[in-house]
């Protein structure tokens, strides 16, 4: 099996395991990572925070979003770039932001260029992932969206943090040279 086939097999396996988690397991995982994320945000005094809308059994970011709004943090969500294929923009997300479904069926803020945050103004970026390993390597859905976003993140001064269920950990991911490891992964 070549490396691409290995990566596809890991994606298939873990996505299946993840969608089979019970509602209770999902709820407990969400509570656990929410608390860990809040602690990390407080320690690092992050103000501009990017998250994502969970789907496909990903840990729910809903409780984290609600709490961060109460703390007056500035929240951002990824939006598919209208021209640059496989690139993301990060748009301000408020309780009354108009939302639309993108072509993956994921809800995102309606595009408004005035609401775009340049990545170098971001303090923390929570990323979804399919699989991860002890080294902080991440495997996503296969679009390379986050690998492009995370390029040279050290120079942009934000911290990329993965959120994952325990069942998403593998011993060692077969990585490619473009994969960008995360600063940390919070596991629930
Ligand atoms: N910085 C980059 N510049 C150009 N192409 C890239 C870059 N990063 C990744 N790619 C391309 O994107 C494709 C998908 O990458 P990969 O399989 O690592 O996705 P992924 O990490 O699972 O997805 P995502 O980053 O969206 O979660 C690969 O073909 C790779 O060549
Ligand atoms: Mg990758």
Brief overview, please?
The radius of gyration is 16 Å and the shape is globular.
Describe the structure.
The protein is built from 5 helices and 10 strands. The protein has 188 residues and is of the alpha/beta class. The chain has a single domain (3-187), classed as NagB/RpiA/CoA transferase-like (Rossmann fold). It is globular and about 45 Å long. The two termini are 31 Å apart.
N- and C-termini, Cα separation: 31 Å
CATH-defined topology: Rossmann fold
SS strand fraction: 15-25%
The bound ligands are: adenosine-5'-triphosphate, magnesium ion
Structure annotation, total helices: 5
Unreliable segments of 5+ consecutive residues: none
**Number of strand segments:** 10
Global Rg: 16 Å
Shape: globular
Instruction: Spell out the CATH superfamily.
Output: NagB/RpiA/CoA transferase-like
What would CATH call the architecture?
3-Layer(aba) Sandwich
- Could you give the order of strands across the largest sheet? 3-2-1-6-9-10
Overall pLDDT, averaged?
97
Estimate percent helicity: 25-40%
The main pleated sheet reads as: 6 strands, mixed
Succession of helices and strands:
HHEHEEEEEEEHHEE
Class from secondary-structure proportions: alpha/beta
CATH class: Alpha Beta
Instruction: Give the tally of structural domains.
Output: 1
Family: Belongs to the 5-formyltetrahydrofolate cyclo-ligase family.
Binding site for substrate: 58
Protein name: 5-formyltetrahydrofolate cyclo-ligase
EC number: 6.3.3.2
